[in-house]
């Protein structure tokens, strides 16, 4: 009986630890961000921990969130929200994840999520295809990537 309660206590403590450490983040899909840029994700750059969840919130209608082909860590699963769909994505694999709003991709509506400190897919993210204003915007976001713990 004593052994059983110890196992139960350890199990409960582990569960609480997971709940306490996995954070939830929010990215808003907006027609204009706080710095006056049109058609944006805000914040467009996020650094999170493995296991964290990001919810893409439909602050303004007409947007979606979907990962950019070839611009997420190898083996990681991409996502594709429908227009006006609020989706939550949990990021387990470390690395960089570029994403876009499909209708406003060429207008520069892109975002970048850094999960943990592994930046080994940086070149793959840089090498993906970004039309129109998305190229310069992604360049800005990649400038916010940090190596090592911060
Ligand atoms: Cu959009």
From TrEMBL:
Protein name: Pseudoazurin
Keyword Transport: yes
Domain named Blue (type 1) copper: residues: 32-115
Entry's localization field: Periplasm
CC terms in the record's Gene Ontology section: periplasmic space
Cofactor(s) demanded: Cu cation
Keyword annotations of the record: Copper, Electron transport, Metal-binding, Periplasm, Signal, Transport
Coiled-coil residue spans: none
Signal peptide: 1-22
Main localisation: periplasm
Keyword Zinc: no
Classification via InterPro entries: Amicyanin/Pseudoazurin, BlueCu_1, BlueCu_1_BS, Copper_blue_Plastocyanin, Cupredoxin, Pseudoazurin
MF terms (GO), sorted A to Z: copper ion binding; electron transfer activity
Cofactor: how bound: Binds 1 copper ion per subunit.
Residues engaged in binding Cu cation: 63, 101, 104, 109
Residue ranges of the TM segments: none
